[in-house]
Amino acid sequence: MKKKRPVRLQGKDLRPESLMMTYGYHPEWSEGALKCPIFQTSTFVFKSAEEGKKFFEFAWGLRKKSARAEPGLIYSRLNNPDLEVLEDRLTLWDEAEACVVFESGMAAISTTLLEFLRPGDTVLYSEPLYGGTDYLLKQVLTRFGIRPVGFRAESSLEEIEKILRHGGTSEKLGMIYVETPSNPTNAIVDIAACAEAARRHSTRKRRVLVAVDNTFLGPLWQQPLKHGADLVLYSATKYMGGHSDLIAGVCLGSSELIDRIKGLRSFLGTMAGPWTGWLLMRSLETLKLRMTCQMKNARYVADFLVDHPKVERVYYLGHLPAQDPQHRVYRKQCTAPGAMISIDIIGGESAAFKFLNNLKLFKLAVSLGGTESLAEHPSSMTHSELVPETRHRLGITDKMVRLSIGVEHPEDLIADLKQALDAV
Ligand SMILES: *Cc1c(COP(=O)(O)O)cnc(C)c1O
């Protein structure tokens, strides 16, 4: 799965952040332009009819890619330089062989699931999931005879096995779909345990895949491919884009799997446009800077909140007690706690609303991962689609508020939280 870092200096691999400005683009392609321009074009001119024929043979898989012969540019639904350079750059962070970019996170997730699942299949998924993914599994894929079966995010390998055995699902298992840490409770799923369950239920005819939505911590603080996942998915709208000004999605994995997803992307037309690709390349130059600053800010904010008398509970990965079984999984799988914090405010929904309505620097909006700090109320907003009983079971209560921490000065963020809590 791992691809060797392609750029070395004095015998050492260069780190991704050193390559985000230049990797995969050659100025001689574009009149010496230092930056990769926006290739705002729907189609590409062939040098000859013979070349056009050859490019189409690659596109239909009639001719194999090789070191000497690479597929050429045909039409922007199939490929475009902004997407190809971006895809190459994105492989560096997760050390993936290949990457495919989409016009939204949901496009990445739906195209991937449609490529690998068939009528009669079961998809085992961690709970809770992002609302859009939850709807896709329960309301859309079920129309195609695909059965979703949930497991609690915190489950051990034994508990996952029990669900597979008792649900009568094991022989039809097509995929294990994981979101970790889960939204909004920050519960962690053990990716290696899911990979082991998938291995046990794979047959010679069919490999059960593990796909991980890594939007919350990745690619800086969690790299699922290293823990046995086959595919990593992102809503690039969040940390990767990072400025709350675009919608995009990403999937990474082996060339074999990504080629299949790219094939379906061409026919569903879910690829990102060149402008989105260009904006994402610009964002990736500061990905590490932004995510590191946000992670550090979140620690100050979480430490302030945990001592506040109006806050009943803080859900923050940096505060997991050592004796909590989740702490062991966190230490094994994550390199930092990220910048998402949820809190329970004493006094229920009315207190939570009062707090939200009094925030000044934090903006009251859904989404996350941008440079500005955001706050929202999961039970009435992002997770309102779940039936109340499920929400309750997963601990998503009326008193919960979710915070996405940005790059502001941490003391200004704390001052805002303090005055809004005082107003409660
Ligand atoms: C936002 C989000 C998605 C959906 O991504 P879009 O870019 O909005 O389509 C999927 N998963 C998670 C965890 C998200 O936060």
Notes on the protein architecture:
Among the domains are: 99-253, Type I PLP-dependent aspartate aminotransferase-like (Major domain) (Aspartate Aminotransferase, domain 2, 3-Layer(aba) Sandwich), CATH 3.40.640.10; 287-422, Aspartate Aminotransferase, domain 1 (Alpha-Beta Complex), CATH 3.90.1150.10. The longest helix is centred in the last third of the chain and has 20 residues, at 287-306. The mean pLDDT is 94. The protein has 424 residues and is α/β, with parallel strands linked by helices. The protein has 14 helices and 14 strands. It is 37% helix and 15% strand. Helix 7 (191-200) links the parallel strand 6 and strand 7 (209-213). Helix 3 (81-94) runs parallel beside helix 9. The strands form three sheets. The chain has a seven-stranded mixed sheet, with helices on both faces. Strands 10-11-14-13-12 form a five-stranded mixed sheet. Pyridoxal-5'-phosphate binds at residues 104-106, 130, 132-133, 179, 183, 213, 215, 235, 237-238, 247, 249.
CATH architecture of the domain at 99-253: 3-Layer(aba) Sandwich
Oligomer: single chain
What gyration radius follows from the Cα positions, in whole Å?
A: 22 Å
Mind summarizing the main beta sheet? 7 strands, mixed
> Which compounds are bound in this model?
pyridoxal-5'-phosphate
Structural class: alpha/beta
Fold blueprint:
Blueprint: E1 8-9, E2 12-13, H1 16-19, H2 49-59, H3 81-94, E3 98-102, H4 105-116, E4 122-127, H5 131-140, E5 147-152, H6 157-166, E6 173-179, H7 191-200, E7 209-213, E8 231-235, E9 249-253, H8 255-268, H9 274-284, H10 287-306, E10 311-315, H11 325-333, E11 340-345, H12 348-358, E12 363-364, E13 374-376, H13 388-393, E14 400-404, H14 410-422
Parallel strand pairs: 4-5, 4-6, 6-7, 7-8, 12-13
Antiparallel strand pairs: 1-2, 3-9, 8-9, 10-11, 11-14, 13-14
Helix pairs in contact: 3-9, 4-8, 10-14, 12-14
The structure holds pyridoxal-5'-phosphate.
